[in-house]
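Lecture 7 notes: from sequence to structure.
We start with the chain below.
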Amino acid sequence: MASSSSSDPGIHLNITGYGVVTDPRIHEFTVFIMTVQANGMHSWTIYRRGDSFLALSEQLRSIVRMTPSCPHPIACDPRSVESMERARVQLTGWIWQLLQLPNVIQSRPFQEFINTEANLPPPMLQSKSFHLDDSGGFGEMDVS
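Predicted structure tokens for the same chain:
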């Protein structure tokens, strides 16, 4: 789980799954399902497309000089658990790096990323959740 350092307001983020939106009127797309917890008390779920991570990266680069490059989540294959797990691990690591940087958590782009449309899954979402298996690795659990 990505978490903030001791000097920040206590934001914890965890990508707990992914989903595919299968609206026949538009091209299907993948969303990552994230749990956000603030101050150890309040938690909510957000649903973000891969391009939302890339947009956050670009917005933060104009505010915070040392913003690391975002891994490219759009290239992952939603039919492959391995591909989605790789994207999840890379994006979680990237978010963890962001939380270590001063001024990121309080920035408008980051606040919008973690708060906009909270607890509102996209219509026609077919979701998959990740879970820890007995070996400590992640497996797939269908929650459609």
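Points to note: The chain has one domain: 2-142. The CA atoms of residues 52 and 91 lie 11 Å apart.
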